[in-house]
TrEMBL record:
One GO process term, biological-process aspect: P450-containing electron transport chain
Cited InterPro entries: 2Fe-2S_ferredoxin-like_sf (IPR036010), 2Fe-2S_ferredoxin-type (IPR001041), Adrenodoxin-like (IPR001055), Beta-grasp_dom_sf (IPR012675)
Keywords noted in UniProt: 2Fe-2S, Iron, Iron-sulfur, Metal-binding
Start and end residues of each 2Fe-2S ferredoxin-type domain: 2-102
Species the sequence originates in: Flavobacterium faecale
GO molecular-function terms, A-Z: 2 iron, 2 sulfur cluster binding; electron transfer activity; metal ion binding
Cross-referenced PROSITE patterns: 2FE2S_FER_2
Record's protein name: 2Fe-2S ferredoxin
Cofactor requirements of the protein: [2Fe-2S] cluster
A UniProt-annotated Pfam family: Fer2
Protein family (similarity comment): Belongs to the adrenodoxin/putidaredoxin family.
Amino acid sequence: MAKITFITSDNETITLEGTSGSVMALAVDNGIKGIDGDCGGVCSCATCHVHVLPEHVAKTGEASEIETDMLELDDDADKFSRLCCQLEISEALDGVVLRVAK
């Protein structure tokens, strides 16, 4: 089980627990504001954009090439950006903190 914390654009901090599936699905299923997941998790819409807190980047790893290409279309993207549809819940993510992009 992994505890994953989201910080919304309203600075609300929400910690959820998950055992499998994508972080996007966990967020959508629990109504995290700002995570829409319009494409259903196939890396084609960027409506699940999050910024990984710098001290947690080792837990998520770097964005893939296709993910980076999608993020380039978002003005709010930076080197800590990830699409949470591409983050699979595992013990490696336990304790990760993700700031929901605007």
